[in-house]
Structure formats: structure tokens, C-alpha cells
Amino acid sequence: MSLEEFKNRNIGKQNYVKLDLEHTPQTPLGRFSRVVRRTLKGELFVGLYVTLREMINALFRGEMHTVKYPLEKLPISPRYRAIHDMLRLLESGHYRCIGCGLCEKICISNCIRMDTRYDENQRKEVSEYTINFGRCIFCGYCAEVCPELAIVHGGRYETASEQRASFSIFEDMLTPVDALKQQKEYDGFGAVSPNADENIKKTPLAY
Amino acid sequence: MSNEITIKIDGIEYKTKEGEYILNAARANNVFIPAICYLTRCSPTLACRICLVEADGKRVYACNAKAKEGMEITTSTPDILEERRAIMEVYDVNHPLQCGVCDQSGECELQNYTLEIGVDSQSYAIPDTKRETKDWSSVLHYDAGLCIVCERCVTVCKDMIGDAAIKTGPRGGEALPKEYKESMPKDAYAMWNKLQKSIIVPSNGSEFTNCSDCGECTAVCPVGALVSRDFIYKSNAWELEQIPATCAHCSNGCQIFYEVKHTSITDPTPKIYRVTNEWNYVSLCGSGRFAYDFENRVEGKDAEAFARAVEALQKADTIRFNSVITNEEALMLQTLKEKFGKKLVNNDAYAFGKFLSTYGKAAGKMLYGSDLKSITSSDFVISVGAALRNDNPNARYAFNNIQKMNKGAGLYFHPVADTVISDLGKNVMSMIHKPGLEEAALYLVLDLFSDKEKLPEATRSYLESFHKKGTRTVTEKVMEEVTETVVDEATGESKEVTKKVPKSVSKEVEFEINELASMLGGSDDFADAFEKMMAKKESFSLIVGEDLYFHPKAENLARLVALIESTSAINIVMIPPKTNSLGVALICDLDDAAEGYTVGYNENGDFRLSALGNGDLDMPALNQQEGTLTNINKLVVPTNAALGYNGYVLNDLMNALGCGEELTVAWTPKLASKRGFEAHCFDDLPNGYTNSGAEQRGYALVDLHRRAGEEGVEEFDGSIALEGEIAYRCNPQRQFNDFTDKSHEIFEAFALYASSTKAEELGAKVEVDFGSERRVFDVVADERMEGNIVKVPDFRSADDIYGLFGENRFKNVTIRKV
Amino acid sequence: MEVTVLPEVTWLGVVIKAVIILAIISAIAGFGTYLERKVLAFMQRRLGPMHVGPYGLLQILADGIKLFTKEDIVPQNANKLIFQVAPAITAATAFIALSAVPVFPDFTIPEFIPLLGGTFVPSMAADLNIGVLFILGMMAAGLYGPLLAGMAQANKWGILGSARTAIQFLSYEVVTGLSILAPIMLVGSLSLIEFNDYQAGGIGSWMMWQQPVALILFLIAGFAETNRTPFDLLEHEAEVVSGYATEYSGMRWGMFFIGEYANMITISVLAAVIFAGGYNDLGFLAGWFVIILKIAFFFFLMLWVRAAWPHVRPDQLMWLCWKVLMPIAVINVVITGFVMMA
User: Fold this and answer.
1) Residues A92 and A54 in one domain
2) Is A68 contained in some domain?
3) Chains touching C by CB (3 or more pairs below 8 Å)
């Protein structure tokens, strides 16, 4: 790659239209005629027209941009990364987290911690789980790495609180049992890709 | 053995030793050959078959084939790669996909090799068999579902630990489908065939292992099948910070890693979760692995207690301590003696130091000649006066390893029979003798192994006096040739066949009786048996234990040991009784008895400095301080602080007394003022192993040579042999000191240990009359003990068991049921 | 001219008129800020103030409370007297100028009201016969406010603001006078009432048809006089933070604004009266309603222009006024004279 190409590598086809920048007139007459030309060209009135048009659009055609935020909220993208949700299994209602610790490992701001133990049913139980939202940068790696689709980013972006602890307890992030039916799968980071089946090789099973 | 040869691996020349396995040669040269079932210091298992390589065009297993001069080795050919891939696929068949919860995840060799070999699809399948999860003992948890039957646990338990507590058992799986035999690579099929039939079970036929609970099997397990019950599902491997240290419990000073993480979500203070080791090069005992949480948690500096401690030290006449301290602390105490004339009392190091110096005078040097590491390469090992299983587990591992790896033989002289030792191999002879006859045992060793020419005239004739002639009737098997006529069924032809048939013949034989051997419990055919044991043996070693240091004739024993070393080919190693007894014995000038006002350091005293949390001033435990320990291998090894300590340390007291240093580790180079030590900065001391298994830890003590002493050995005194009811000062396995006792994973109680029959006879609780004092103990049956001698543990310093036993490790006692 | 019909203008009537102007124009000035914010918002398709009162109508009240209760800070090195007086100059001159403007129709306070009953309140506080000159003069004097404020506050942005004030002052004043000269020549009087009466003949008789150039020049000059975009050089925040008002806070700062909005109203009234037919009835529409519509339009125009146009540099303003507008104005006057003589 030549230097020229290298420098221009992001410019695409270079089919830009250049601004018609006329030379500044040097004579008083030239300047005067420019004023006259510009005045009569009506550019100023185009400006007036545009603003008036927008005002009419806004007032009478319902094209107002303003969202009265606390009263009305825009729907957020499923890929938005706000306060985490911990999902449950739809069948049993048991939380999905298996305590593998991958989110804890991958967390680049080191804000996830969990305690696990060997429970009475010979399973790994997550006895404690917290995310320190004072440190969390909402990068989404935890949701990305989670093998069980258990930790996801929810849509709860209003994170002002008197106490950070208000968000960070496992139970708070967990889908309430009675809201299990409303639980949605996460479409953003770490969600199963649409073509996942194509990428999986089948393992033979003998039964 | 040390002949250097040149081999070529993948076209590059490497140097290695003749007779080295190809795998070890490659590893020592940082060449990677995959291997799962192989353990460096154990015999090749050939279970995994993944270490296949091509040597001079032939397929061999790298763990099993020895390197030869000029050998050309190819680590991967298309065939081998196909084979390896098939092997890894087979390992993944029916292996539960539960890496998410598995404790081994992140350090799992199945994960690693599956990735390394690049297994991204599975070609084989077989119906799974239900495999139960079991708790084998108080510490072992076995998840058969995860097990890949590499048999590393079985191998290490047999070849290294010597318990042979586990073996492969029937799995009950279906037979492999026939078509695989043709379609699969040969080795993978063979491996799978074996794998599909086996599972690991306790070898005693029960549900539980009756073993030393060392947990080495959990360390070597490549997958999450074997883990400690305490650690299961507690933490992921990658979260734990490894802090290289030295085990604080026995004199072997094994290199370990304390693995540290915050205690919980709410408590950020670090906590030790487990201890790991370089299991290819170090084997831990149960204490090393499970006794790690003995730290002394202190809130902060208690200035008042500190002031009282300074005052107490100023007015103290005696400082009483034991050897569970670092060299630096020992040097501080010695400084107190030199500056202020305090008496230093330390039971274990005093006896050991006296024995060592008597030996040294007689032998013309300061230290015993060998160490555990070098005697492991010998092929005949003798142990005198050591309860090998309890005193120093690594000495026992060495004893066992010699039997298994070197086709060795062993002689175990001890008054208390131990089934573990006698089961170590068919060439191990246990000589169960009366307590007090250790001199006779050494004389027997002298008689059997020494070059008679070198012995003093008196000793030679003294030994000669024990040899008698006798006759007895023996039955021998003789092979007799018999000729028969056989008709071949197929052809109908008859022909004559000559066979050899065994036949028993009785005859009178004249043989030599060695009265020493008989006296020590040897059978009538000791001489024959010994001759068999001696066959093809080249190097010899002697392990000397604590019984000899605490012995009425300890000085004579020390001279005998020196005599054995100088007149025979035997290498000597002595087991220091406690963690750092060797260091303390070399650094401190100890006194024999306490007098006046006594300050106790982890021991009884009028003022107690204690790392146990129950003293008048708290001290850091050995997992909370930096420093060096002197181990049985005569190495000065560093240990690191795994956990923080907020209180005062001994160096602070030294500073208050006007003779301290800025930091405790500033004392490390000052050790050079003592014999054998060198001036090394603490931070310069390495603590690890290289890929070739070379130990790079600390520095070796320097032995000093001088003229050998003139004092001869005395004849032994048979009259001091004890009869009747005898107590033996000996700790149960996994217990060494107050610190092991404090740890939550050590369950062995402070009680009277007796063989099963004796325990039944004694009942649940007894009162033991030591003459001077009576103590009440619970009775615990130790299934691996035999005989009538009972063991009284000394690991609790507060109970002053040393005081009860005095200068002997055996004592006549009266035991009454309570 | 029949002015004798009106009752006698007493001093009480003038005072009452002055109080009414002061109260109502101040309120309207405040309301002007609200309108400006709303109109600008709509033109940017926003909602503008919405939360205080219905549609944010009470926003002015909230702003007023804020301005009144804010701490009145006088910088340490400022010339205290001048610093404190300057805003008053701006506000005062704006209102004084309004005294010569016919703001509302005249009326007599009904008899039943005690004390003030029967008092005649004139449409303008001072019906001077040089009304237009007085108004322009007072508004020009109003620029002393920013000039002094900027120089008194010991702040470099303030100084820059003052300098720009001086430039602006020097630029537009000539054009204002000259542009209005031609209509004055046509009407032959300086009284605003005369101007109104001159255009009494319906839309066709409006001055703007006879003097379109004068209207444009007057509007340009008026924008400059009231510091509106595109000539808001004095306090253009992207260039000089807040210009002369940088150090002001609270009500003193508010007074500049009241002055500015009062001036905007004044200019709107002048434009409506001089060029757009004044308060003559327009068909069926009553005169008072017509003039309110006209004033509102010119006021709206100022907001509209602010939303649409960029502002010019000080040197461009000066160049424009002296070298373009003044010659055009002079030519306009000359042509008007020739036409009148012809």
C-alpha cells in the first residue's frame, strides 16, 4: 500500500462535492456587489422559511422531538447494557446461575464476587452474589461469557440511588418468581446467535 | 547413571542422561509431549497412551521408553496425531459437561488437552453407566462421573505414599461395540477398552479408604474427580493467588503453595483456601495439605501486652520454646542469650543437637552425610528409631519409593509394629524389638553392612561374638524331570514329552545364627531372608529417627551411627524431631533445664508469647511470617507470609530490647554468623522447581570438616530394654504440633493411640500413670498399629508431654481404665 | 389636527400612566423572555419551558423569584458605584423612551373610584413634538448601561463587551437617524401621532410602500440597537462569555434584560407606527387590535431572526453600517427629496 492509499484508506470512492468557496472580493465595489448579491439571493429568507416550517411542523403536525423523560420513556434497544438481571429457568423457576465464576473472572473492573458452596443435594450453590455497581462499567462481558444465559443486562438504566447496595444483591437482580412468565430472553451481548445451530457439531449419543 | 547422551527431538539436539525416560528428557529440555497418566517420580502407568512418540521410526510411549544415545524422536506424525485425537475424543465420551461447576475447571488437564489436541467433534459413543459420588474418608471426595481412570491417584498412592489405599475396580460399563475395533486407532481402542471396564475404588473392599488422608491423590487428579471434601465448590482455581512457601509442620519442609482469596463477599480479608504442591516433585502429607488455617488472627497491636512482654523478657531467666519457629527467630533468641544471658530451653532441639554434636565429634563433621532426596535413589534402606509413618511422612515416602521404583529392600527397626511399613513391599522386613535395644539394631547394621577391615578390633570381635552355628530342617523344592507319552488328539500321533515337575525334599541344613537379629525380633531364617534382600543391591541408606535422640544411651548411639557411616557404604540421614529442630540446634546454644522466671514462646511459661492466640502476647504463626527454615535435606528454605499479621512480631520485641533489626528478614543474612549458614538476603532465595525436577530452594548448609574423634563405641546395654506396659511418645499421623491441631481439617484427636486389640482391652478412657504424674486420655484405636505399646502424642505443648517422658521416648507406665 | 377634544393632561394622569407603563411593560418584558424561549423551542421542534404552571406560563414568576432572591455580587475590584448604577441606566432609558410612545389608548378613570376618579390618563406619558427623536435619543443613551457595566466590572470579558458596545453604538446610530429621515420628510412632523394620521388611508397608504428601503434600514438598525441577533455582539457567549454582563447576577443582571425587552417593544411600536399604518382601523378590525398585531409581528420577527440567522462580527457590523447602509440611507433621503420637489 502506498502512502497515499494508506492515508486515504477510509475515504471510500471520494465522490464528495466540494463547497463552492468563491474568492473574497478585493475591491470595494466587489464587496458591495457581494452584499447585494447575497441579499437578493434570498438565502436569509430561506433560513427564515426553514425555521418557520419547522415550527409549524412541530406545533401542528406532531413532529415535536421532546420526550418528557420522567413521564414518558423511549423504548431502549435490547442491546442496551444497564443494570444486570439474573434469569431463572422457565421450567423449574430455579435460578440459572451455576456459580461457574466466569463472570467474576472476565469482569474487567473486578466488581463481581460470588461465594459458592457444596449444598445438600450435591450441587454447587451460589450462596452469595454481588456486583459492585460503584465500579461496574457495564461493558457486557459478564453477559457475553455466561454459559447459562443467566446473567444479562436488563433495561433498568435509572441507577441513581441513595445506596449502591440497593442494586447489587443477587435477589434484587433475580427475576421475581411471580414474574417468571414475563421473563424475556436477552437479545444483546452474549445471546445465542441466530445461526447457532449451524455452528454446532452433533455429538453422537448411544442412548 | 549420569552419563550424558545426545538425543534428537523433532530434529533438534538435546542433552540428557542415559536411562532417562524420553518424556522426562523432553520435559527437562522444555519440549512438550502430551502425557496424562505419568507421574515423574512414580512408575509409568501406561493408562492414557497419549505420550506416543516415534523413536527411531518405532512407536513408543515416551513415559516408558528410555532415551538412548543418538535416538531420533518425532513427537508428532500424522498417525500419532490421529491416535491422540482419538484418545482425547474417547476421554470426552460421557464426560459430564459440567466444567461450569467443576472445581478443576481452569486447571483441568482434560480441558487443556481437549483444546490442545483440538477436539471439536466427537466420533464415538457408548451408553453411560451410573457412577456414584462417594466420600472416601474425612477428607476425600470422589466423583466417579468425572473420573477418566488415568490411575494417577492409584499410582501415587502405591509408588509414592505407600498406602495403596485405592485401586481400579469394575465399572460395570457395557462392552465396546465391535465395529470400533476395526475403525478406531489401535491405542485409543485399547485405552478405551480398559477405561470402559474400570473405575477407582478403595482397595480394602469397603466404601472407605483406610489411608493416611494425605490428599496427594486429590493433588494429582487431572480432572475434578478427586477433591478434598472441604474445598469442593468453594472457589475456582483461577481466583486463588498462589503464595510459594514452605510447609511449617515437619522437618521435611516441603515446598507448598498457600492458595489465598478473600474470605467472602462481606469479608475482604484474605483466607487460605487450600494448599497445593508441585506434585511431580513434592509429595505432601495430610498435615501439609490440610493443616493450613493455623494463622493467628489479631485485631491490632496490643501496646499494653507488648509493654508487659518487654518487661517479662527483661526479667526473664529462661526462654522456653519449641522448634516450630524460623531460623531468624531462633537467631533472635540466641541473640538474647548472648546479650542478656537468658537461658534457652527447647526439648526437641536440645536432644537432637546433642546427638548431632556427638555424632559430629565422632565423625569429624557437623552434619549427617546424606539427605532424603539422595537416599531415594538408593536401593536398600534401613530405618532405626523412627516411627516413619508419624515422624516424617516424606521419610516414609522415600522408604516406599525405594521399594517401588528401585526394586529395593528395606529394614525397619522399631518397637512398634506398623502394618503400613511392612506392607510397603515384599522385600521390607520389620524388626520389632524391645524399646531400648536400638544399640543392638545399630550393631546389627554394623555387622551386616560394614567393611569389617575398617572396624576397630574390639568392635569386630564384639560383633563376632554374636555369631553362632545351628542346624534345622528345611523343606526345599527340587525340580525333577519326568518323561511322559502324550497322544496328539488332532493327528493321533503319540510322542514323548519331557516335563519338569516340582518335588518337595526335606534336608538338614547347617546355618549361621546371628543372635543380634534374634534379639531384635528377627526370625530364624533371617540370614537367608537378608541374603535375598541383598541381591543386586548397590547403594544403601539409613534413616535415623527421634528414638535415638531421646535415649539413655544417645551418645553411644550417635557414635555408632558415625561408625556405620565411616565403615560402610551406607548414607545416613537423620530426622529432626520438629519442623526446624536442625536450624535451632545449629543456631542456638541450648540449656538443659529451665530455671527462674520463664517466658514461653508457644510453650508453657510465666509469660507466654504465643502464635496460637492464647498467650499473653500474640505472635504471628508460620503462615504469617517471612523467614527461613532448615529442613531435613540440610537446605535453608524460605517461606512467605500467606496472610497478613497486624500485631507485634518477635523483631519488635528485639527492637524494644535494643537489639533488633528493621525487618525480620534482615536477620536472614546475619545467620551467617552461625556454623553452616551463609549470608544470603531473604529476597534472593529461590523457592521452586525447574522443569527437570531440580530443586531450587534456598541454599544448602555447608558442612564443616574436622578431625574425627577418638572415642570408641561402647558395648550395648541390654538391661535398659523396657518390659511391661510401655507408652511411646509419638504423634498420630497428620498431627505434629499445636498448629496442626488448630487446623479445621485435621481430625486426629489428642488421645492415647493403641492397636485395635489393645484399644479394645483398654476401653474408651484410661488414666496413665507416668510415675511423676497421672493423665487421663481417651483411647483411639489405630488400625495400622500392632503390639501392646501405646502412643501418647506430644503435639500439644501446653500438656508438656516431653516433661512426662523425660529423656526417653519410651516409658514404663501403668494404665488404668477410668 | 383636532387634539383639543382631549381633556386636560394633569400631572396625576402622567404619573399613573408612567406607573402603568413601568408595571405592564416590565411584565411584558418578562413575558417576552417566555415567548422567546417558546418560539425558539418550537422552531427547533422542542417544547420549551413546560413544568412551571400550565405550559410553563409561570416560568417568568419562577425566574423572577430566582432573580430577586439571588445574591447580588459585586466583584472586589469593580467600580462599585458605576457597577451598581449601570443596569439601572439600561432599564431606565428604555422606559423613558417608552414615555414618548403611545402605548395604550387614552382613557378616563371612572368617577366611582375614590381619590383617582375622573383623572384622565393619556395614551403617552409625554406627548412631545419631537417624539421620534426623543425615543431614538433615549434608546441610544441606553447603551451607556452596557458600556459602563463592562468597564466597571474589572473583567476582561466585560471590557471586550464594552468595546463592542462602543462599536455598535457608533455603527447603527447614524443609520437609524438617516433611515427615519425620509419618512419624517414625507410626514413633515416628528410626532408619532402625525405619522399615524398620515397613514390613515388603509393598507395602501402605509409608509412601507413609499419607503421600503427606509423600513429595511430601520429594522436593521433597530436590531442592532436592541442587541438582537444577528448583532448580539455585546454578550455573545461563544466569544466573550457574557460580555458586559459577565460579572452580573441576580436582579441587576435581570435589569439589563428588562431594558433589552423594553427596547424590543419600543422598536416594534416604532416600526408599527412609522411604517405599518399605526393604530388606524383596518377594515373591520379596531385600531387598538391592529396595532397589537403589528407590534406582535415585529416582536416575533426578532425572535424568528434569532432562530434562523447567524450573527456577524463587530468589524462586519461597522463595515455594513458605514459603508453600505449609510450610503443607501443618504441616497434614499436624496431621492425622497427629489421626488417631493418634483
Assistant:
1) no
2) no
3) A
- Which chains reach chain B with 3 or more Cβ–Cβ distances below 8 angstroms? A
CA dihedral of residues A45, A50, A52, A55 (deg, nearest 10): -170
A30 and A90 share one domain: no
How would DSSP label each residue in B604-655? --SEEEESSS-SSEE---TTS--EEEE-TTSEEEEE--SS---S--HHHHHH
For B749-786, give the DSSP string.
-SSEEE-HHHHHHH-SEEEEE-SS-EEEEEEEE-TTEE
Task: Give me the residue from B123, B127, B265 closest to A115, CB to CB.
Answer: B265
Structural domains in chain B?
Answer: 303-354+581-700 (no CATH), 363-574 (3.40.228.10), 718-817 (2.40.40.20)
Does residue A200 sit at the B interface (CB-CB below 8 Å)? Answer: no
Q: How many helices (H) and strands (E) does chain C have?
A: 14, 2
Listed by start position, the domains of chain C span: 72-104+126-341
Q: Which amino acid is at B802?
A: Y
Pick from A105, A118, A124: CB nearest B238: A105
Q: What is the pLDDT of residues B63-101, one digit of tens each?
A: 999 999 999 999 999 999 999 999 999 999 999 988 989
Minimal Cβ distance to C308: which of A50, A57, A58:
A50
| 3-class state of residue A100 by DSSP | coil
Q: What is the CATH number of the domain that holds A155?
A: 3.30.70.3270
Domain count along chain A = 2
**Domain-embedded: residue A202:** no
A53 closest CA partner among C298, C36, C308: C308
DSSP-derived letter for residue B727 is: E
Q: Which residues contact C219 (CB under 8 A, 6 or more apart)?
A: C271, C301
* Peptide bond between residue C310 and the one before it cis (omega within 30 degrees of 0): no
Question: B131 with B144: CB under 8 angstroms?
Answer: yes
- A90 & A168 share domain: yes
Q: Taking CB atoms and an 8 Å limit, are A48 and C320 in contact across chains?
A: no
- Residues of chain C found within 8 Å of residue A24, distances taken between Cβ atoms: none
Task: Write out the residue range of the structural domain in which residue A16 sits.
Answer: 3-60
Nearest chain A CA: its distance from C235 CA (Å): 23
3+ Cβ–Cβ pairs closer than 8 Å linking A and C: yes
Residue A45's Cβ-side half-sphere holds a number of Cα atoms within 13 Å equal to: 5
Same domain, residue pair A91 and A157: yes
Task: Kindly state whether residue A66 falls inside one of the protein's structural domains.
Answer: no
Q: Are B660 and B654 in contact (CB under 8 A)?
A: yes
A182 and A96 in a common domain: yes
Q: Coil, strand or helix: which one is B28?
A: helix
A13–B contact, CB cutoff 8 A:
no
Q: Are residues A56 and A12 in the same domain?
A: yes
ipTM for the complex shown: 0.78
Mean pLDDT of residues grouped by 10 in chain B (818 residues)? Answer: 84 92 93 94 92 93 92 93 94 90 92 93 90 92 93 94 92 89 92 92 91 93 94 92 94 95 90 94 94 92 93 93 94 94 93 93 91 91 93 94 92 92 90 91 91 88 86 72 70 71 74 84 83 90 94 92 92 94 94 91 92 92 94 94 93 92 93 91 93 92 86 84 92 93 92 93 92 92 91 91 90 90
A123 and A176 co-located in one domain? yes
Look-up: residue for cell 389608548? C105
Backbone angles phi, psi at C270, to 5 degrees: -60, -45
Q: Is A141 inside a domain boundary?
A: yes
Cα gap B713→B787, rounded to integer Å = 31
Q: Provide the pairing of β-strand B270-276 with B428-432.
A: unpaired
* Neighbouring C-beta atoms of residue B262, cutoff 10 Å: 17
Q: What is the pLDDT of residues B632-657, one digit of tens each?
A: 999 999 999 999 999 999 999 999 99
Residues A52 and A87 reside in one and the same domain: no
